[in-house]
Amino acid sequence: MIRTIHVDKLTENIKEMCIEANHYLSKDMDKVMKKAVDIEESDLGRQILCQLQENLEIAGKDMIPICQDTGMAVIFLEVGQEVHFEGGSVEDAVNEGVRQGYVDGFLRKSVVNDPIIRENTKDNTPAIIHYEIVPGDKVRITVAPKGFGSENMSRVFMLKPADGIEGVKNAVLTAVKDAGPNACPPMVVGVGIGGTFEKCAVMAKKALTREAGTHSEVEYVKELEIELLDKINGLGIGPGGLGGRVTALAVNINTYPTHIAGLPVGVNICCHVNRHSVREI
Ligand code: SF4
I need a surface site. Which of 21, 106, 115, 160 has the fewest CB within 10 A? Predict the structure, then answer.
């Protein structure tokens, strides 16, 4: 049966989610950050991790953003095919939610209206919206504000099929090594393997929103996540890039079928705040 949802519901939820994601570390990230202190071997690394946690706690208590770069609002909308929206344009409603969240929530406005002319839009719109039509009559909204310290260190590698899984590992490790301290480590590394040029990048972005500390249901992908996390944490970049064991908190990988002639790999690097807020309406 068709379920009607007024677009104002999108606006209200997205406004709250922009504010929430920018002020509180998600539960999964909180858990892996706490675990990181026990794993870290360097004294300076442990000290930095403790300072980051103290900063995150103060942010939540005093309603201060968890980072000054409150990001560009990336939004995944998984829309049930039984849903009918009423009350106006979905895209306008999403952007209105971002506008209200960033203006009323006093969040930094980081978006420019044109990549070359570069005038600030002053309300952090437009958002980057990824739509997906799924079975059912619900809408799952994921709001993931993305800072550009780490976004700028992200990469797409168009590998050859013969490069195989070793090529994938090298690509991920190259991206992380090149990112070094610029991505505000400890990082979360989102990886998309397969699809096309654009598909692997979107998969890598979506992978960042999967709960840190969980693994892919595909056995070889799960093993690859564990192996890559271990290898990344052997690079010595460490918390804040000042040396140590904990360079990454998680590696999340998504895969998709691809063409016989290619092996695209997207690596989307995120910092330790890895903001994401999820709701279903
Ligand atoms: S990369 Fe993350 S922690 Fe670093 S400045 Fe950007 S949002 Fe903040």
Answer: 115
Find the domain containing 179 and state its range.
149-279
C-beta of residue 127 within 8 angstroms of C-beta of residue 95: yes
What's the predicted TM-score (pTM) here? 0.97
Token duo for residue 244: 């140590």
pLDDT at 236: 97
For residue 235, count CB atoms less than 10 angstroms from its CB and return exposed for 0-12, middle for 13-18, buried for 19 or more.
Answer: middle
For residue 185, the CA-to-ligand 1 centroid distance in Å is 9
Atom 2 in ligand 1: residue holding the nearest Cα: 271
Among candidate residues 146, 168, 184, the one where a domain is terminated: 146
Closest-lying ligand 1 atom to the alpha carbon of residue 67:
8
Q: Is residue 117 part of a domain?
A: yes
- Residue 154, ligand 1, Cβ within 6 A: no
67 ligand 1 Cβ < 6 A: yes
From the CA of 68, give the closest atom in ligand 1.
8
Q: Which residues does residue 190 pair with via DSSP β-bridges, in sequence order?
A: 252, 268
Residues of the chain with pLDDT under 70: none
Q: Are residues 174 and 117 in the same domain?
A: no
How far is it, in rounded angstroms, from Cα 25 to Cα 22?
8
Q: How far, in Å, CA of 250 to CA of 190, rounded?
A: 8
d(CA 132, CA 119) in angstroms, rounded, equals: 31
Q: List CB contacts of 142: < 8 A, sequence separation 6 or more.
A: 75, 76, 78, 209, 276, 277, 278
Tell me how far the alpha carbon of residue 132 lies from the centroid of ligand 1, in angstroms: 28
Tell me: the pLDDT tens digits for 139-196? 999 999 999 999 999 999 999 999 999 999 999 999 999 999 999 999 999 999 999 9
Which ligand 1 atom is nearest residue 146's CA? Answer: 7
CB contact set of 198 (below 8 Å; sequence gap of 6+): none
